[in-house]
Write a structure and sequence with these properties.
304 residues; 7 strands; 7-stranded parallel sheet
């Protein structure tokens, strides 16, 4: 295979939070371009995380390898600084380099109660959301960035949720996490751009993830027939649309032009002429803008 077909051959990526969803898809799409991808998470074949989902990091690694890269599964609790330090030490020992860091860690779902304001929401649960959604990104950046900075032309991607003036997301801790992660991409760009590293934030649209499909009791094969009454679900996308955008960024020698920005999957789709797994080109940005305009006109709720 030529470097034109595998532009990330020889590159090493860390996708922090690669068990499922956008993280798993990103690991696979980076692998499809030839990268060695370390995919981390807490769910393994030996035991599930508190998310209690069936997907495992070993599955992710096998999918990366099948796609054309080299997948490496490492169990890592990104709330544990020592665990993350060991992870980065292993990457250093194995390869002596890190070219791409994708911060996609979440793990806050078990703590969330959507119908409780902050004074009624259990304090331990509120802090647990912040710990899993914000501290993990800071811990990972602290330990991984020194290795990435030893190389040249690195890429750091924060995976957030939403861009521009996103309406309140219904839970104080959740809203703070998603807002903070978007801001992290901006802050990292200020710190890393002078050092030759591109940092930015990306966001998916209405994500048709494994857990979302399960929530509605549908599969990737039949979701269109069985979610006709679910608002906006017809405009949803698989995690691979965003993932293909991240992989395209990693292969783009001119990606520094996006430093500090927040790019939606739909922005990346247009920039790199991408399609989702089913060949469609879902544009959540356009749907979201139209819904917000409708909210301003007649007070109807938008998709948030």
């Amino acid at each position: 295979m030529t470097t034109e077909l595998l532009p990330l051959a020889g590159k090493v990526a860390l996708v922090a939070g690669a068990t499922r969803g956008a993280g798993r898809a990103t690991a696979i799409e980076l692998g499809a371009l030839g990268a060695t991808v370390y995919g981390t998470g807490r769910s393994t074949r030996a035991g599930r995380s508190p998310m209690d989902r069936p997907e495992t990091i070993e599955d992710t690694a096998e999918l990366v390898t099948a796609a054309g890269g080299q997948g490496v599964a490492v169990r890592c609790d990104h709330t544990d600084a020592d665990d993350v330090a060991r992870l980065v030490g292993r990457i250093r020992t194995d390869h002596g380099r890190l070219d791409v860091l994708v911060n996609d860690i979440w793990g806050g779902d078990p703590f969330l109660s959507w119908d409780q304001p902050v004074w009624e929401h259990p304090l331990d649960a509120t802090l647990g959301v912040l710990r899993n959604g914000i501290e993990t990104h800071l811990i990972t950046s602290h330990h991984a960035l020194p290795l990435l900075l030893e190389g040249t032309d690195g890429l750091v991607v924060e995976v957030g949720d939403g861009k521009e003036a996103v309406p309140y997301r219904g839970n104080m801790a959740y809203d703070l996490v998603k807002t903070a992660v978007v801001r992290m991409g901006t802050g990292l760009a200020h710190e890393l751009t002078p050092r030759g590293v591109t940092a930015l934030t990306v966001t998916p649209g209405y994500l048709r993830s494994e857990s979302m499909l399960d929530h509605f009791g549908v599969t990737e094969e039949n979701w269109r027939e069985n979610t006709r009454d679910v608002p906006y679900f017809e405009h949803s996308e698989t995690p691979h649309l965003l993932a293909r955008g991240i992989a395209a960024l990693a292969a783009d020698a001119g990606r520094a032009r996006f430093a500090g920005q927040t790019l939606g999957s739909w922005d990346l789709m247009r920039e790199y002429d991408l399609r989702d797994l089913d060949g469609t080109r879902p544009d959540w940005g356009a749907v979201d803008r139209a819904a917000r305009d409708l909210t301003l006109v007649d007070g109807m709720p938008g998709p948030a």
